[in-house]
UniProtKB/TrEMBL annotation:
Gene3D superfamilies: dinb family like domain. It comes from Catellatospora methionotrophica. Transmembrane segments: none annotated. Residues 9-131 form the Mycothiol-dependent maleylpyruvate isomerase metal-binding domain. This is Mycothiol-dependent maleylpyruvate isomerase metal-binding domain-containing protein. GO terms for molecular function: metal ion binding. SUPFAM superfamilies: DinB/YfiT-like putative metalloenzymes.
């Protein structure tokens, strides 16, 4: 299986918009599924991570995250919040498209562009899943995108339906004959 790239991130962003766009009038102050964050705070977190990953690729620090944060204004509407996610994701996709495959930037070690693409996809789809537990409970991450994330970030993942395995790998779901995970990490760094 191939590593993910900028087009895969754009597809994840489209999946987010399709899942969340119809629910902008809902109560986004409600908790996002089982998270302590509200749906709104979870959406802001997605945008923050996407812009942070773009910054890491652009500056290529080798020992830490750049010391900045994205702040979403309190008066931003839910529609505007989804636009902010699109903007942040677009910046990451552009950085990914421009990045030399040999580039390494820090994410708990040296991380290549495909790792940042996979992490951007994971943050987008997993937190969309968290939000949809409250707003649209039937939604699942797209199988093809989940498979790319598993391939790149969870190389030791068990066999099974990619969306279900991704949710299990991140403590969000159950798999037969396996205990639910309460802790987990992904492997984005590559030497």
């Amino acid at each position: 299986m191939r590593d993910p790239g900028h087009d895969d991130l754009r597809q994840a962003l489209q999946a987010l918009q399709a899942a969340l766009g119809p629910h902008t009038a809902a109560d986004w102050a409600a908790p996002a599924g089982t998270l302590d964050w509200s749906c709104r705070d979870t959406a802001a977190h997605i945008a923050h991570d996407l812009i942070a990953y773009a910054g890491q690729l652009a500056a290529a620090p080798d020992d830490a995250y750049l010391p900045y944060d994205l702040t979403v204004r309190p008066d931003a509407t839910t529609t505007q919040l989804l636009q902010i996610i699109t903007a942040a994701g677009g910046l990451l996709a552009t950085a990914l498209a421009a990045a030399d495959p040999a580039l390494r930037a820090w994410h708990w070690g040296p991380c290549d562009p495909s790792g940042f693409a996979a992490m951007g996809m994971a943050e987008t789809l997993l937190h969309t899943h968290d939000i949809t537990r409250t707003l649209n409970p039937a939604w699942q991450p797209p199988a093809d995108q989940a498979a790319l994330i598993l391939h790149r970030l969870f190389p030791d993942a068990p066999d099974g339906a990619p969306a279900a395995v991704l949710l299990w790998c991140t403590g969000r779901g159950d798999l037969p004959d396996r205990p639910r995970r309460t802790t987990w990490t992904w492997r984005a760094a590559r030497g």
